[in-house]
Each structure stands twice: as structure tokens, then as C-alpha cells.
Amino acid sequence: MERNEFIKTCGYACIGASSIGMLLQSCVSNKSITANIENENLVVPISDFLKDEAYLKYIIVRNNNLRFPIYVFRFSENEYTALYLQCTHQGNELNAYGDKLVCPAHGSEFNNKGMVTNGPATDPLRSFPIQISNPNILISLKKA
Ligand code: FES
């Protein structure tokens, strides 16, 4: 291979590799945080939804006292949902892909309100009441 041809080939390969990297990075736009529990509420700073001066659609919230993380979806400034990421079929942890939650075990899918959109699961996800108390969102962990 001629030197010029080699450089040209490597250049295209580098451009291709960096484009794929950027594409993958843009797909991974969610954020995972660890939040504190105060008075039976998981305290999530609203500022955790900000990334590059824009609001993320959702974040994943963890705490060592919770067996599974909680998916918090932001519909608007005043409307959020908080869903337990435990599949209602056989209890596996769900993965979040934008506004869709998918179980890697048997393929159940849920929407961002916790409703089943694809079985075998039949029951909706556990959801938690949310109270907005600026500058935080309080997710109530009290048993109903
Ligand atoms: S445990 Fe989730 S689909 Fe079976």
C-alpha cells in the first residue's frame, strides 16, 4: 500500500471511529445519581436533571437502602413520575431506554408511567408519590 493511500485509509477509519463514539455518547444521555433519604423521602435536587444547560428527560436514582434504583421521568417543570425498576413479572432489574423500560430477562416493556406495553408482565410498576419542594423533588418511600 502506498503511503498516501495508507494515510487516506487510516484517516477515514479515524473519522468513522470518532463518529461512532459521538453517536454512542449521545445515546447515553441519561444520568445516574445517589440520593439521600430524609424523613422517608428520597431527596432529589431538581438541578440533577440539568445537563449542558438543558433538562434531561429522566434520571436514575439510587440509594444503598433500596434494592433497585428508581427511574424519575420529567414530563414538565411540575410533572414527574418515579418508578421502581423492578420487573413485575419475576423481579429482575429493568433497563431504561429513554421513555421505555425494558426487562432483559424475558422482554417485558413498560412506558414512562409504569404501564405494561409488552408482556409477559401484566402488572404495572410500583410508583412513588412525588412532591416538588424547591429546589428538590421529594419521592415518598412510605408504604401505602
Ligand atoms: S422478569 Fe421481567 S420479563 Fe420476566
Automatic annotation (TrEMBL):
Keywords: 2Fe-2S, Dioxygenase, Iron, Iron-sulfur, Metal-binding, Oxidoreductase. Residues 41-139 form the Rieske domain. It comes from the Bacteria. GO terms for molecular function: 2 iron, 2 sulfur cluster binding; dioxygenase activity; metal ion binding. The keyword Metal-binding applies. Coiled coil: none annotated. PROSITE patterns: PROKAR_LIPOPROTEIN, RIESKE. SUPFAM superfamilies: ISP domain (SSF50022). Gene3D superfamilies: Rieske [2Fe-2S] iron-sulphur domain. CDD domains: Rieske. This is 3-phenylpropionate dioxygenase ferredoxin subunit. The lineage of its organism: Bacteria, Pseudomonadati, Bacteroidota, Flavobacteriia, Flavobacteriales.
